Hints:
hpI Integrase, Chain A; single chain
Amino acid sequence: MKLKYVTKFRDRHGSWWQYFRYRGQKFKLPGKPTSAEFMAAYARYLESAESGALGRNNVTFLPGTIGNVIEKYLGHGLGLLQHKAATQRAYRLYCDIVKAEIGQFKIGDLTPVAVRALRTSVAMKHKASVADMAVMICSALWKFAIDQLNLPLGHNPARGISKLHKQRKLTKRWSPDVIERFNAAANPIARLGLALLLHTGQRESDAVKMRWADIDWRHAQGPRLHVKQRKTGEDVWIPITDLAFRSLLETTSRITTLS
């Protein structure tokens, strides 16, 4: 049987996959050809294609499918919207990848074997770290479907899936001698930057946004530095107790450093 827009692909394991191919985009078709599940998905894609609505981000997903869960997750206050803006942007991209790969399948049919297959497919098209994030999204979607959509799901199939991306080894910490030599050769801005990292323990993204106005010199318990962490959104007050650090802050020119 030959169906319009349907192509097939054989993976490296010898398994055949059926796709609905339209205008350069491919959508996986579930089940075996001629099965009820396959034909229902095909009819849905064909109708969308003929109406001009078919696209990677505007396919209509049936209730209970992974794509449908993703759409609800993206707009839910306890789903994607609970995260910070930067995290939302990143997670939305990973959700799009998962949706394109397995969005048409029922979430209840997701198994550890299927999650590993997703991980392999994404790694081949993107990279290992993206594949690991796709697995993480599957885990988050499973939990969301149980907690917020009340779907009768069991054990999370994405739990325990090993990561492909290996963590980089931490760089060797600077010794006091290296720090001393750096300070001797660096300009005032570089010295202050290193001091902020060493004495506040904050992330680089937070340290570069510190301002002179963030320092409360008159606090009853001594000077302290206010930081609103970019990742967590938390307000943190850091005591300035180290005398050398305090002296550096007091003597550094306000014109050439910070804002």
